[in-house]
TrEMBL record, chain A:
PROSITE patterns: ABC_TM1 (PS50928). It is found in: Cell membrane. Belongs to the binding-protein-dependent transport system permease family. Residues 114-328 form the ABC transmembrane type-1 domain. Its main location: membrane. It is a multi-pass membrane protein. It holds the Pfam family BPD_transp_1. This is ABC transporter permease subunit.
TrEMBL record, chain B:
This is Extracellular solute-binding protein. It comes from Streptomyces cylindrosporus. It comes from the Bacteria. It holds the Pfam family SBP_bac_8. It is found in: Cell envelope.
Amino acid sequence: MSHSTVPRSRAEANTKPAKTPVASGGATGARKRTGKLGLRLRFRRDRVLLLMTLPALLLILVFNYLPILGNIVAFEDYDPYVSDNGIVSMLHSPWVGLENFQRIFQDSAFWDAVQNTFVLFFLQLVLFFPIPILLALLINSVVRPRVRAVAQAVLYLPHFFSWVLVIAVFQQMFGGAGMLAQQLREHGHNGIDLMTDPAIFKLLVTAQSVWKDAGWGIIVFLAALASVSPDLYEAAAMDGAGRWRRMWHVTLPALRPVVALLLVLRVGDALTVGFEQILLQRDAVGPGAAEVLDTFVWWNGVRNQDFGYAAAAGLVKGVVSIGLVLAANKVAHLMGEQGVYKK
Amino acid sequence: MTPNAASASSGSSGPSRRSFLASTAVASVAVAGGMPLLAACGSSDSDSRGGTTSGKNAKKLLPAYVASNVVTPDIPSKNGSSMGFTSKLDVTTLKTSVPKKLGKGGKVTIMSPFWGSPPKSDNPYYTSMNSLIGVDVQWQNQDGNTYDQKLGAVLASSDVPDVVVIPGWNMGGKIPSAIISKFADLGPYLSGDKVKEYPNLAAIPTDAWQRSIFGGKLRGLPMPASYVTNIVPLYRKDLFDKAGYQLPKSADEFTALCKEITNARAKRWACGDMKWTAFNIFGVLSGSEKALGWNQVDGKLVYRVETEEYLEALEWTRKLFAAGYVHPDFKLGKSQATDPGSKFGAGEFLIWNNDISNWYGQQAAQAAQNPDFKIWGMDLFGHDGDDPTLWAAEPAGIFAFVNRKASESVIRDVLAVANVTAAPYGTKEWMMTNYGVEGTHYTIKDGVPVKNDKGNNEVVNAFVMVASPASTIAHPDFPDVTKASVEWQQRMGAFTKKSSFWGLQITEPARYTNLSNDFEQLEDDIARGHKKISDMQQAVSDWKKQGGDKLRDWYKQLLDENGSAAS
């Protein structure tokens, strides 16, 4: 690599998407090559590849696309028990048109859930998302392989604990009868209970997520960092760049496409915030502070068997999610990054 | 588990919920007894408006009653209490209530809620029960705590097991409509004199059968229960005696006692979540089933959430929380991750309102490691110091249903199973159902059967869930607890009234089934200070507008047409 490959400007970075480890240039390259060939020729040439994709395609069709039809129940007062067959039940349930949607938009519990979901999403975006990047930079700077392996193992470990366990540990530490509260009481202060205070619940949830999953999140960033050629650092060093300048001009630009990609993906998932984690703690602070869209759907659908209503809420969530992905992708393009897809 | 789990039950809570209760405390009684409950049966299959079956129509369906006279109880049932057996049980002279095997050797799958870790499917308890009955029962034990979530999905599938056990507290949302469309009519096998083929089923009290009529047909095999409230304010008598605490006689005395007990610095709090006791001492209409919450006052029906008492009870509960008398773990509500039982055992809190089966259950569980431990039930008092006004719970709360597609031979085999599990105390069948096999699951110590670890692990839930004898409390190993439990029920039974729809199985019309879904959540939010009493008042006025008033008219018409079942 020559000196000049270090991207100096946004424009230059943009012209070299293939440099990035994840947002692959492979796909774009393939498209150029196949452009001129006829469909049949291409089919014959790629038949082995196509055959290999078939099982995955089938799975997606059966488990992702067919169930989309089930959204019909959002327009019904769906009663799954009128028949042994779900499709027959769908045909027999009374059609109510948009009534479920009207009910949802008038339901203050739904709007609470929407608000909680968005607040939680933004909190996590600001407080959680950058942490794996910082950790990855930290780990990457550790030279001794042993120390590095141990540090990585320690960071990954909480990811494998179940939420029930994580929350029980938090309760034992920060609950009203937990270690912190008892320590305070023994020293003559009032005990505090961080687990049942609706005002700080969202910070609590974010803290739990960070503790559990921040370590796991560094994997992708480490992979991206590993693909940065050491030549770049050497060249930069020879140009007189110090530690911070190397990070600013070499490391971070190399991470940028990955960050942009993950950010877009995260935005697509914005309305999906910690279902299990929140369901387990929902009653501790009440649904007013804790209900998110996923638990709202669960509560009304599975728990109350108001399937039509829950399906309608799920559908609203899906539509908003698509909108968010499209918007985030657009922003990524404006920033000169690949995003998830490009026209 | 309760050795005689089948009998220890009361009200809306099942016996086998004990370990469940132990792990999630009273809040879960609330879940159980609470809101998202039932709607139940329609007067006919085609009648989607819901309704009930009573009077003459019910008489045609109900099985004949033939009392069992195997053993006379030491304490007979009075004021709706269970029967109590306190004298020693001579295992060598047990009677036989099923002289010849009725099972034809077929295979029957049963799905049932299970609290705890289920044993292996070929364990000696299941195999010896199966050979006693003559039916190959295959258990599909599902976690009882999340049973409502599985139930809805299983019933919606085309693969429903031969028998499904459904507790009343899991009959929320559209489950009642599922019961009516998915389960068989047992009338042709049990109505009138036909039941005499199964003598132990014939000895199940008629009011329990009355509750088993769903959608105008006899569909359930009931677990009879005492109609006296199942929620007892249990307290640590050993620690009360040591500190010289006096039992409270009014709501204010209770609060003062809480203040005296609580010392957070020493890790001691007065009580758990007292919501369900508050409802009892303030005389709030029962919350264990929707229909029980309605009562006619001066010719007008009122629902429990509309009453002053309801708000007062919530406010009182809220004050206990706000003053810091409640153990902090209970602030987590149903999501409580740790078992309050061990904290109660450690004396972190001294008053725990809980299902009556826990009186024995906690005592037995703590007896080994904690010899001084003594738990006792506090009498309920009126909030103002007068006698309390208590409202009756249902005389049967858990039912087993047979798949509509089951053949006659499968149904006969299921009834053979039920005829054994419903055997009364003092029979070999009762002993095997509740204690397992002598030598394997229990041993006789000082003339008293005591379960060993294997017994505690295997002889739990399962068979006791299918059908049970008339409500019985019998713990030969703790006769004083047995006596006190029954006497508590009898004293409280004297204050117990039956609301207008007591004893009936009622299906609300589909459009109203989700109307009251959010009240229980709101109650808990108010108690914990997350919501205000005014939020409840708002919710009640919304409830009226969104259909509550129409539902009132519907119930009024039902009452005018059917009369009430309460005598």
